[in-house]
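Progress note, sequence design subtask.
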């Protein structure tokens, strides 16, 4: 309990200490005795009243505050002294005391019943496998080429007249690109932002292209021929429209199995999985209680 208490913000310490001290107020003072928690491996480094400050307490404080051992011990001693001062001056029914006590109890509940089961090793394999299968293209793929693209989209159902207009725009765009001595991503982006080309529905995209994903194979085959920065494709005609692609980077083919990806997946999803487990734990804990909300009293701020 002391360990949990010390991890609360400093502004809560005195109020929380008063709440804890209220458990023993009115009782006869106890004679100092050898603390049950102390041992040869974890000796008491100080005693304030009948509270022992153990070496393990000091170690926790050092990790939390990056203090030296002596500084951490001095701070814990001051805390215990403040606890007694707070007990003498603050009523246990003080709202701040009650709020601090509730916060400590919640923290202790989480530490005891939830956190031991929230390590990365606790993520079930079926959860990891589900993530792997949904993101399999990240782990199993052919050569991928990152490209910047200028696109004049049509679609398979576009009628001949608007398609002819789109083709004319694409040819004019391609002619401008061929006059450029050096092709860059900035060039492609600036063309797409130029009001004259925006009005003619030229759009910019940046993708990792495989043979037929995300754009169809007519695009993928030309993209796969690109080898170095500055390389661009000819004007490509595909079911999706007209496209010119610029090489940016590439990734070699990969075939990473689930077993080899497991540890990487644990690292990637751990925080989201941990948050979801916490919410489930909170909902289960609240399930036995009746909750009433009064949204009409909200101020709207």
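Output:
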């Amino acid at each position: 309990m002391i360990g949990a208490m010390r991890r609360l913000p400093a502004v809560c310490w005195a109020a929380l200490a008063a709440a804890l001290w209220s458990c023993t107020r009115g009782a006869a003072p106890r004679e100092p005795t050898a603390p049950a928690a102390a041992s040869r491996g974890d000796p008491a480094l100080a005693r304030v009243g009948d509270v022992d400050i153990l070496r393990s307490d000091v170690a926790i404080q050092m990790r939390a505050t990056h203090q030296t051992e002596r500084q951490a011990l001095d701070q814990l001693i001051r805390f215990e002294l403040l606890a007694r001062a707070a007990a003498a001056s603050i009523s246990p029914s003080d709202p701040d005391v009650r709020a601090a006590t509730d916060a400590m109890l919640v923290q202790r509940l989480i530490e005891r019943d939830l956190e031991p089961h929230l390590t990365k090793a606790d993520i079930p394999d079926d959860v990891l496998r589900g993530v792997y299968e949904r993101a399999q293209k990240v782990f199993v793929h052919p050569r991928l080429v990152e490209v910047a693209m200028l696109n004049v989209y049509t679609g398979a159902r576009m009628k001949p007249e608007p398609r002819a207009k789109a083709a004319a725009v694409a040819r004019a765009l391609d002619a401008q690109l061929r006059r450029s001595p050096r092709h860059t991503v900035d060039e492609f982006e600036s063309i797409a932002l130029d009001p004259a080309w925006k009005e003619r529905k030229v759009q910019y995209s940046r993708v990792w292209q495989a043979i037929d994903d995300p754009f169809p194979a007519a695009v993928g085959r030309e993209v796969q021929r690109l080898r170095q920065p500055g390389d661009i494709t000819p004007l490509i005609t595909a079911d999706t429209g007209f496209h010119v692609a610029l090489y940016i980077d590439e990734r070699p083919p990969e075939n990473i199995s689930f077993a080899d990806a497991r540890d990487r997946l644990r690292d990637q999803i751990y925080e989201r999985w941990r948050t979801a487990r916490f919410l489930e734990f909170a909902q289960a804990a609240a399930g036995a209680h009746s909750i009433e909300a009064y949204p009409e009293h909200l101020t709207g701020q």
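The longest helix spans residues 258-286. Work on this subtask will continue into the next period as scheduled.
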